[in-house]
Amino acid sequence: MVERRQVPRYQAELKGQVSQPAGGPTIDATVVTLSVAGCCLEGAASLQAKQDCEIIIAWEGREFRAEASVTWKSSKGEAGLKFLYIDQVNQELLRKICANLRLQPMAKVPEEPEKPPLV
To answer: Which one, of 58, 55, 57, lies nearest residue 66 by Cα?
Structure first.
């Protein structure tokens, strides 16, 4: 099985807030997967691909904060964020959060359909 992801992802159901652009209006979203490199959000319909933002994730009475960029967006209101900058304190908190979540099973990369032979 070939895995296209560079870091493990963890299943989450965490409350998140995204400021778009950083310091601008805030939207509430749910963090459904989390890794040390980024996260996947549900309820983020107003985000746009390639947009910079700030993400805040609530966990056990603490707040994780990071500057991020929207790498993809779906028509269902999902969005993928890549963390751009995380200070040392938030980096340590992120690792604690991930250590307390369930590892997401690796997904098989979809195979391309076989092309018919040229005649």
So the answer is: 55
Cross-strand pairs, 10? 34, 103
Gyration radius from the chain CA atoms: 16
Is residue 104 within 8 Å of residue 33, measured between CB atoms? yes
Cα 83–Cα 86–Cα 90 angle in degrees, nearest 5? 120
Q: Name residue 17's amino acid.
A: Q
Q: What angle do CA 12, 101, 27 make, to 5 degrees?
A: 30
| pTM summary value | 0.80
pLDDT in tens, 68-84: 999 999 999 899 999 99
Task: Give all domains of the chain, ordered by start, each with its CATH number.
Answer: 10-103 (2.40.10.220)
CA-to-CA distance for 24 and 21, rounded, in angstroms?
A: 5
pLDDT in tens, 86-111: 999 999 999 999 999 999 776 655 55
